[in-house]
Amino acid sequence: MVPLWMYLAVAAALFSLGVFGALSRRNAVAVLMSVELMLNAVNINLVAFWRYSETSTDLLLNGYAFTAFVLIVAAAEAAVGLAIIITVYRNRRSVIPEEAAALKG
Amino acid sequence: MELNAISIGFVVFTIFTLGGGIGVVTTRNLFQGTIWLMLSLFGVAGYFVLLSAPFLAAVQILVYIGAIAILITFAVMLTRSVTRIKTRYLRLVPSLLASLALFLILLLGVTVPIFGGVSPEHAPATVASTRDLGAALVDENGYVVPFLLASVLLTGAMIGAIFIARDDTA
Asked: What SS3 class is residue B89?
């Protein structure tokens, strides 16, 4: 078997890649894709902790079920986020997050 | 780590996941970025198989690769974001430094037991199955309330997305 820390290390690398993309990319769609990477890294962590804990045998499905709910929330977030990006693009002809600054004080 | 099917699969899925992730954050063409994202999500689905969660792997492929990646492709096409933006990055160096520092801190945290406890080498031999998950999702002592709330959330998000993206002039 692969030890637990290897899964956690891969998830940490994927999360850091997502953080880098979300902070640095100029395109809102690319930022959203980076957020999806971060959510997936968290999912790897949740399932790995669930699998390697002693409670995974006796029907305690917290990690498993929580991952399923994270997937649902990620799907909702992607749908609403992309709808917002398309609306902003229609109004401002731009997908650069910094240019959607109409509410900036 | 001895050489067997699980460790070989782990290496292969690591290449898929991290290679796809690097592709997502570095590619200039967002269409290719979506393909890289699909590769990365496929690698994560492989991890779920290795971690004996086959239901999550199936859902991962159906929801992420089947729905979200296609949705992102639509957004890329609808916003014509492939052609217009010339520079890929904003704040490149600070973001790189921040994410690198975060990675090193996380790696230190998962490899060195700073907070105590031991990192298990082996998973328990027996594991709950998809049948147990199905029973727990509708069990009143289990997850029935979050399960119902999730359906309400999905309906709300769908209606909200349609309402936001609707073209008022059409």
From this structure: strand
